[in-house]
Amino acid sequence: MSTIEIRHAHFFCGIGGGAKGFNNGQARVGQVKAKFRCIGGIDVDAGAVADFGRIAGVPGTVLDLFTREQYLAFHGRNPPADWREAMPADVQAAFGNERPHILFLSAPCKGFSGLLSEEKSKSGKYQALNQLTLRGLWLALEAWKDDLPDFILFENVPRIQNRGRRLLDQIIQLLQAYGYATSETTHDCGHLGNLAQSRKRFLLVARHQEKIPPFVYQPQKRSLRAVGQVLEKLPLPGVSSAGAMHRMPSLQWKTWVRLAFVKAGSDWRSLRDLRVADGYLTDFSIVPEWAMHNGVLGVCPWSDALGTVQGSSLPTNGRFSVADPRISQSAEYGQLGVRKWKQPTGTVTGQRSPGQGGFAVADPRVQGERFNHIYRIVGWDQSAPAVTSANSGTAAAIADPRPNESAGYESVKYRVTRMDEPAGAVIAASGTGNGAYAVADPRPAVGPLFSKYPVSKWEGHAGTVIGGDDTGAYAIADPRINLNRQGSGNYGVVPWMSPARAVTGRAKPDNSYSNVADPRLPVAAERLVCVIRALDGTWHRPFTTLELAALQGFIDTEEHLELEGLSDSAWRERIGNAVPPPAAAAIAGVVGRALLIAWSGETYELGLEPVWVRPVAIALSLARVV
Asked: N or C: which end of the chain has fewer CB within 10 A?
C-alpha cells in the first residue's frame, strides 16, 4: 500500500471545522491511499485563528480580504492607519508558499441567511460582505495562477442560489475563466457526517478540467442520529470537570418558563395553546419539586427503594433512615430493657440510660442492707412495718382510699368561703392556693366602685369621665381591626430589609408578623440558571456550548475542547459558523478519491452514487490491485 499526500487550504477558515474534517478524510483507489495535510487557513477573526491552530494542527493567518471600499461600506469608517489591502503575495505567504490540491472556502453567509430580511440584505453593509467572497476567490486564483488547485469547493447557505444568484453567477464565470468546470449542489451535513442535527448547505464544486478528467461522486448519505445519542455520553451541565464550555447559560426567568411549556419536538407555537389572563397562566402554577426540607430526617419504608447515596448522606439532610421491621424485643435492643440478675448485659455504649436500651437490672437484693431512700407502697388493707427513727427509710406511705370528707379538709386549697360564714384563720401563707381566702360575693357589680376595667360595646355609650383614669369604663371593643398595628399583626408581613418581630410560641401567619416579603422570587427579566420540570417530566433547557460543539461533530464525548477567550456568545458564533468536521471528512473522501483516480492515469470510474460533475456517461471500475 502506497500513500500520496493531498494538501488542502482554507479561506474564511473560522475555528477549523472544515480543516479538521479534511485531515480526517479517507480515500483509497486500489493499493493507493491518500493522506490529507492542511497547509493553513485565513480569517479576519484573531480568536478564531487561534482556535484554528489548535484544531487544524497548523497555524492560521489573520488577514483582512476586504478592499478599502468594502471595508468602509461594511464598518462605516475608514480602516486603521496600518491597514492595507491584501494581495496575492500575502495569500502565498499565509500558506507557506505551498500550493494546495484542494481549496475550501466557507465565506460569510449572513447576507444570504433567511434570518436577515430581504431589505436589510440589500444594504451596502451586507452587499460588501457578499462581495468579499468574490474578492477572496480572485486572490486565491491569482496567488496560484501558475499552478492552480485541482479542486475548489465553495460552501454556503442554500439561499445563495436565489438571494445571491447574481453573485453566484459572477463566481462561476470567474472559475470558468480559469479553466474550471462547476456544478452546484446542496446537501445535508447531518446525513453526510452521521450527525445529530439537520444542517442543509450549498456546495459549489469546481474541478480543473485539464488536471482532473473524472467526475466526482457525491458522498454516501447516512441517517441522522438522535440528539440523546450524543448528549447522553456527556455529563450534566455545570460539572466542573467538563470545563467552562459546559456551563449552563443564564436565561431570563420568563424564558425558562416558556421553555418548560413548549412541547418536546415543537417550538414557540406551543405557547399559543395556554390560557393567559393579565400576564398570568390560568391553568398552571409552579411549585417546588421536592419537599420544603428535602426529606430531612425522612424515614424510607422497608419496601421502597432508597434515593441516590451521596457523600453527605446523613439523616439530617435527606431520607437516609429506614423503618426496619426486624425489631428485637430482647433486652439487647429494647428501650427500658431489664436484665435478669443471672444474665450477662449487652455491650456498654455511650447511651446508658434505661430509656435508650437494656440498661436496667432486676436486683433481688431487696432484703438486708437498705438505702435511705427506699419507697415502698403499703396497701390500705395491709399492716405497716415497724416505725423507726429513720421514717423516710421504711414504707412510710399509704394508699388512702377515703375521700376528703372530714372537717379537717375544709381548709383545702382554693376553697371559696360563703358570704355568710367566717373566713378561715389568716396565716403567713395567705394565698388562695393555700387556704380558704376567697369569698362568693353575691353583690352585683354596680356603681363606680365595681366598674373598674369594663369594656364598652362599640354600639353602646361610655361611662362618665372622671378624674380617676383607672376607675371607669375607658376601654372599648373596637371592630376596626388594624392589620398594620404593632399590637395586632394579623397576617403581618415583615419587609425583607427589616428585622423580624419577637418569635412567640403561638406565632402563626394569621396571628402575628410571621410572614416576610421575600424578593428572591425571580422577576420576569432576571437572568438565572434553574430547573423547571416540564409537563412531560423532562428538563427543557438550552444546549451548552460544549454540547453544540458535540452536535457539530467537533468532539467525541471523551474529548476535551477549549476555545480562545471566555465569551460564550463568541464561542457559539464560531461553532455555529463552522463546517461540521464529519461532513467535511465525507467530502474530502470523495474529492480525494477523484484526485487519486486522476493521478493514477485513469479517466473513468464506475459507481452507484450520483455525480457532482459528469463529463462522461460511462464509468469504468478501478478497484484492482496495482
From this structure: N
